[in-house]
Amino acid sequence: MSEISSYPVKTFTIGYDETEYDESKLAALVADKFKTEHFVGKVQQASFEETLDNIAFYYDEPFGDSSAIPTGYVSKFASNNVKMVLTGDGGDEVLSGYPAYQGVRFAELYGRLPQIIQKIVPMGFSLLNNISSGSIRYKAQRYEHLLVSASKDFNSRLLEKRAKPDLSSIRSIINPDIYTWPITEFINEFMSKCTYKNDFYKLMYMNFKYDLPNDYLVKVDRMSMAYSLETRLPFLDHRLIEFMIKVDKKIKMNGWERKSILKNTWQKNYRKNY
Questions:
Q1: pTM of the entire structure?
Q2: Mean pLDDT (whole number) for 15-25
């Protein structure tokens, strides 16, 4: 865009005071590289309650994606300067950018180990969890959970990763006398329509068929429309999707590198043009 535009491209991002979550410095590097007219807003704790009320109003239904909050912030922020924006939505789905794809690869490798090792290693982290505290205990819990879930089938891992809070806590608060559709049955029925056998492609199926239409695109559409901002999503061009679905997983994710195709394409163009 910067190369073909006769005027500086406007770019927008949202930052945080908490450095753990803040990506505004990375965005600034990109803006500087391509000489964009860059705008940086910041999510403030003081306005959180008001923002949450706005989100509840505009969604008008239960919606569990917390990233709706910064999406609302950046949409409001951008709408003060432009009427239409391009977003990167779909990039992780089309180009296998989520860490979950690395998780699938790890589960495949871990599943090849003898069963006795798969049982002993998580027990070690469980022991460390019981005798430690602070960040060490937190990491031990994470690794224990990762290893235990890696030994399970794809649908079970999907439930373990996405359930917040954990499944046992959810079951404990649901009255069995009131009809509900158990999440386990929902996931199993949903994935039964998937014809892929490999877990990598099963995750891709879930991203395309469930996550985008029921979560991510809903989130962006509601929050952008709340501030009369039009969004366009280049990564979801049907021609790109139809092509990328046919690309082998080894090319999509070279070793442990996510978004390999996008990174290689950018590097080749960068070397050529710069």
A1: 0.85
A2: 87
